């Protein structure tokens, strides 16, 4: 059963076409990765799913509702981490996690979550006084503190040091084990491999591949290695669209990767 349905939305900014008709279903409990070059429309797609932007055409449904219209329901269902967090600069870490937890019925312990993300020494610090990586980790905490049914995460680990990145991954895995459905934008193939059931590649506002992480990454490598692709390879569309209903959850990955 798809909890997120994206049916051909288009979104332009003036003459720039950011999203050009994307079709995508995300099954409940699935982690879908979104990969693609800068400016390809990933953030705009996530913003349309979050209901923060209204597509010019096409349809988006989240848990059966239009996220741009039923804002109240979406706020209680969806945790969002955006590339630009835009948090109140004077809010402390402790205040921020308490505020975001208050939007949800059965939140996590916000202080414990912040501590797991390495923010223990910064609980009393204001958002404006955090380093870039600390702000980033707080944004991940704020997206997940409500234990949302759906989490939308736009470049959750970009700019983080390796240890912080692992801490973020473990928090995502915990959310997955709790049953959350997650869409995460990433440029990191290791992250996609570790966390995602499927990966959608977006280029110039369209999906160019939708497959398991291994399927997508091996194809990308194949294209990179081929210096002079033959005619069979030029323009070949990647094998597409395993149904999300087929997405078989691999065994817990933490067990095999301490
Ligand atoms: N608020 C805006 N006003 C005008 N153009 C915008 C706006 N937001 C995005 N765009 C344009 O829309 C296109 C898609 O942008 P988007 O932010 O969705 O890309 P992205 O795939 O998330 O890129 P990145 O990897 O750099 O984050 C780009 O050409 C961008 O310049
Ligand atoms: Mg982006």
UniProtKB/TrEMBL annotation:
Gene3D superfamilies membership: P-loop containing nucleotide triphosphate hydrolases
GO BP: any one term: response to antibiotic
Gene Ontology CC terms: plasma membrane
Region entry Disordered, spans: 215-258
A GO molecular-function annotation: ATP hydrolysis activity
SUPFAM superfamilies attached to this UniProt entry: P-loop containing nucleoside triphosphate hydrolases (SSF52540)
Domain of life, per lineage: Bacteria
Record's protein name: ABC transporter ATP-binding protein
Residues covered by the ABC transporter domain: 4-229
Membrane topology: Peripheral membrane protein
Pfam families linked to this entry: ABC_tran
Subcellular localization, as worded in the UniProt entry: Cell membrane
Organism: Agromyces intestinalis
Keywords per UniProt: Antibiotic resistance, ATP-binding, Nucleotide-binding, Transport
